[in-house]
Write a structure and sequence with these properties.
Elements (H helix, E strand, L loop, with lengths): L10 E4 L11 H9 L3 H8 L3 H5 L4 H11 L6 H16 L3 H12 L3 E6 L3 H9 L8 E4 H4 L6 H11 L6 E5 L2 H9 L3 E4 L3 H10 L4
Parallel strand pairs: 1-2, 1-4, 2-3, 4-5
Helix pairs in contact: 1-2, 1-5, 2-4, 4-5, 5-7, 6-11
């Protein structure tokens, strides 16, 4: 006998980086372009990332990274680095795309809420999996980033769904706590398998 499942009607929101997308050898590929050690890039990458996620220019961000690793900051190099970065974070795993397709087929709306710079936002929208997404929210466009509570308020206002009917997956506990404080059903992402289990338990799949 099939067990009964609770009915659910709302919006499923996913973070992008480290939830749907898990970049492979990102720092290594950036290091090749900069002709420096990968570990130097890994350390320099995050110094000004928050400002970049909030909308700072490609040139300013990557010039900063290049300078920190001892490379010459040049416009053509910045463009190449930005393209590698955007592609890496906008390429999602097969299991993640399967979840998106199934959630969409089951009749639920899907949103992306990600701290991301402009090139990453553009790459995500242009991706093949973008067909499953109903709403896009990127910090570079909102000019505010998770876990600022204003982020969750903006999303709630724009999607027209009650906070309690928004299910959110994020890999950072601080972002989950911010969403929970805003009334969302926020879950810490641990794996694609666990995500699917939650969706099944809530009757979304």
């Amino acid at each position: 006998m099939e067990r009964s499942r609770p009915s659910w009607n709302g919006l499923v929101v996913f973070d992008l980086g480290e939830v749907l997308a898990t970049p492979i050898d990102l720092y290594g590929r950036l290091a090749v372009v900069l002709s420096v050690d990968e570990e130097l890039v890994r350390n320099a990458y995050w110094v000004d990332r928050d400002a970049h996620d909030r909308g700072s220019s490609v040139e300013d961000y990557w010039a900063g990274v290049a300078t920190r690793v001892g490379a010459q900051p040049r416009a053509e190099i910045s463009k190449q680095l930005a393209e590698i970065d955007a592609s890496a974070w906008a390429t999602i795993r097969a299991d993640a795309e399967s979840v998106l397709a199934d959630v969409k087929a089951a009749g639920s709306r899907i949103a992306i809420l990600s701290n991301a710079p402009h090139p990453m936002a553009a790459a995500a929208r242009a991706s093949g999996w973008g067909q499953y997404i109903d709403h896009w929210f990127f910090s570079c466009e909102l000019e505010v980033a998770k876990p600022d509570l204003r982020v969750y308020e903006i999303v709630t206002e724009r999607v027209g769904v009650a906070p309690r009917s928004i299910l959110f997956f994020d890999d950072r506990q601080v972002n989950v706590e911010g969403a929970s404080a805003s009334g969302w059903d926020a879950r810490l992402w641990t794996s694609g398998e666990r995500t699917r289990e939650v969706l099944l338990d809530l009757g979304i799949l």
